[in-house]
Amino acid sequence: MHRTIGIQCKNTMATLSEKTLLTEIENAETFYPPLTALYIATSTDRDSKLQERARIISFERISQKKFPVHILFWNDVTGDLAKNEVEFMKYFGDFFVHTEKNVAGDDNDRRTFSVDEMDIKRHSAFSGKSISRQKLLNWGFIISVIGLLGMLLIFARIFGPNSGNWAPLAMLFCGLGLTIVMLAQALARRKFEYFLKGNYYLEASASDRIYLNRLTATCPWCASHMGLSHLGPKNGVKEDIFVCEKNPRQHKILLDFTLLPEMTD
Length: 265
Prior knowledge:
Blueprint: E1 5-10, H1 18-28, E2 37-42, H2 48-63, E3 69-72, H3 74-82, H4 85-92, H5 115-118, E4 121-124, E5 131-132, H6 133-155, H7 167-189, E6 192-195, E7 200-204, E8 209-218, E9 225-231, E10 239-244, E11 252-254
Parallel strand pairs: 1-2, 2-3
Antiparallel strand pairs: 4-8, 5-8, 6-7, 7-8, 8-9, 9-10, 10-11
Helix pairs in contact: 6-7
């Protein structure tokens, strides 16, 4: 049986008043064909007093053979949307690991993808040249020691009264060296580390050599190009996420780097 249902949206920061509720009911009375129900959806949080008033008004209207009235607060709207897995994954899919094919559901309801399905590719910088992790670690120690020695000599005024002018350079060497050491140590465990501010990643091969790579993929939803980016809140935990160029808002896939094929030299 055909039913005509009306939904009136109210985007407001303050709670709705009873006057607004009655006004919308009066406006809905003029709708043709007549409504069988009216829903007022609002962006505000639940208001128990307004809910009670709406129930009373709705009960009175039903007794008069008029359409009932319901209020949907923002909590109700988001709660109902979250029950729909397809819609939930569309907007919050980047909170889940999408690297294996989902064993449940059909092809249209797939929410995880294999490396082959996404056609993930590595693009090595410097024409594919690499450096051994141990050599990188050694260079890190050497640069750190140079920086520390420079700081000691500056404090000892070995270079004269203007030695302090060299302090920023010595600190730079210390910081750079320590960064290299930490990266080399991290790559011994993880084999995959984000590098500086670009979209490049340091990867350790099976023979413990370090490559600088950029990763791309093909969007499994729309077949567009995807680039891997290091995303997250400014002061929070960042994650490595493939983002679609055509639909960057909805088509995002969180990378589990442990499922990438191991690099060989």
